[in-house]
Amino acid sequence: MASNVVVAQEEAATQAPAQTQVDLSADPEEAAAAAAEEGKSFHSQLKQKFIEGGAFFMTFVLLTLILGLAFAIERVLYLNLATSNTKKLLANVEDALGSGGVEAAKEVCRNTRGPVASIFYQGLDRMDHGIDVVEKSIISYGGVQAGLLDRGLSWIALFIALGPMLGFMGTVIGMIGAFDAIEIAGDISPSLVAGGIKVALITTVFGLIVAIILQIFYNYCVAKIDSIVNDMEDASISLLDLLVKYNLKK
Question: What is the model's pTM?
Answer without folding.
Answer: 0.72
